[in-house]
Specification:
Blueprint lengths: L2 H12 L4 E2 L4 E2 L8 E4 L4 E4 L5 E3 L1 E3 L5 E6 L2 E2 L7 E3 L11 E7 L4 E3 L3 E6 L6 E4 L4 E4 L5 E3 L1 E3 L5 E6 L2 E2 L7 E3 L11 E8 L2 E4 L3 E6 L11 E6 L3 E6 L7
Parallel strand pairs: 4-12, 14-22
Antiparallel strand pairs: 1-2, 3-6, 5-9, 7-8, 7-10, 10-11, 10-12, 13-16, 15-19, 17-18, 17-20, 20-21, 20-22, 23-24
């Protein structure tokens, strides 16, 4: 074997390439073929929103990626994740896969399905909270009826401040005190499409046992056939 052939063989061995026999049959480079350890997951979005698919793969670097939609390669989709344009109803049910390759080989991911839901509708309030009147020590309940794309979320406020834990379609106050008299309550209803704030409902708190004495008017007393006596009473003169 001449010197130049030895140099070539040493170079090829250093590159991980072996030669069998004098004919120079070449085996492929040494390394690990790609393996996918986290498959792309199904995605569900509302029409007009993008969806993102991601893969995690191992193998001898460098790894290359090519995403496909319904079996066709997506131009420029050559990284570990792919984000679609704003989805439309025609994208509903589309299948996405990714082919991961290196110098040793390639592997194809499982298919991930894109579900596109109809465009979300912002909340609207069909029944506003009503004013409430209670006596001191009693509780008051405010309610709202709203429509819109589910799920709807609720946040009640008292005098402009959010009430901790008041996140349902109705809110019942603690036992009221005179300090609650005149308080206003609103609720903000939200979903993915937006939010709406109710009109304010006022809480009136009356003193316990409160009330006023009835006012007496004139009393006419007839005695005998032709005699009439008139007397006037006022509750302010009564004990």
């Amino acid at each position: 074997m001449n010197r130049s052939r030895v140099v070539i063989l040493l170079f090829l061995f250093a590159m991980g390439i072996t030669i069998a026999g004098c004919t120079g049959t070449v085996a492929g480079p040494k390394g690990a073929v790609p393996s996918i350890i986290a498959q792309p997951a199904n995605q569900a979005v509302t029409a007009g929103q993008p969806a993102t698919f991601t893969v995690v793969a191992t193998g001898t670097a460098p790894l290359s990626y090519q995403w496909q939609k319904n079996g066709a390669a997506i131009s420029g989709a050559t990284s570990t994740s792919y984000t679609t344009p704003a989805a439309t109803s025609s994208d509903n049910g589309a299948k996405f896969i990714v082919v991961v390759s290196n110098a040793v080989g390639s592997v194809t991911s499982n298919g991930a399905t894109l579900t596109v839901n109809a465009t979300a509708t912002a909340p609207t309030i069909s029944t506003q909270p009503a004013n409430q009147t209670v006596a001191v020590g009693q509780m008051a309940t405010f309610s709202v009826v709203a429509t819109g794309t589910a799920p709807l979320s609720y946040q009640w406020q008292k005098n402009g401040t959010a009430i901790s834990g008041a996140t349902s379609a109705s809110y019942t106050t603690p036992a009221t005190t005179s300090a609650d008299n005149g308080a206003t309550f609103v609720v903000v209803v939200s979903n993915v499409a937006g939010n709406v704030t109710s009109t304010a409902a006022k809480l009136t708190v009356n003193a316990a046992g409160g009330g006023t004495m009835p006012q007496f008017g004139h009393v006419f007393i007839a005695i005998g056939e032709n005699t009439t006596y008139t007397s006037s009473y006022n509750s302010s003169n009564m004990c």
